[in-house]
Amino acid sequence: MTNSIINPIEHPEVTQQFSENIILTTLDDLYNWAKMSSLYPLMFGTACCFMEFMSAYASRFDMERYGMIPRATPRQADLLITAGTITMKYAPNLVRIYEQMPEPKYVIAMGACTITGGMFSVDSPTTVRGVDKLIPVDVYVPGCPPRPEAVIDAIIKLRKKIANESIQERHITQQTHRYYSIPHRMKVVPAVNDGMYLASLSEQVSSQKIERVSGLELPTLEAIANAQNG
Q: What are the residue boundaries of the NADH:ubiquinone oxidoreductase-like 20kDa subunit domain, all occurrences included (predicted)?
């Protein structure tokens, strides 16, 4: 019985075994491996979440080790990370950018303001309550703002989703609830906070009561003390 060396120093010999010279795979696996290993995100940011997105590319996290090279134009990108608040005024531009990206393309909603409107969803009439009302979203990253670790976790989840896709079934599994920039027309509603609330009837009645109370002569402290001692 001869002892075999696990890591020999000399060059390995070319073997004739079938399992060591041929790799068997499918077209879907090869195509998905190429997509998930070369995601090109668009340099897109509208608010403070973009700072965390930039931190994910810093030397501490180094998101480029996943093969993600940021691109400056939508025609060269296949991943859109909506990092920040989306307003009604900016919504048509966002949809236009998404339409300019080639297929297959993916979207990550980053931050609470992008997912639900965040802290602006209560009193802001111009904030979009969820970017999924405009474009289809693949992965949601909650937080205000989410840390770079959460962004990297979203990338890993997106890579797993891409790995399970099929070329033949893509027209079945892809999302269809999307609004295109050409036929979509946002409904213009009158502003609620128009600054005219002081002119309402209830405010006028309350102001008249305040004027009546302020017109009365209030008793002095001496008069009150004399009445109590009296």
A: 48-158
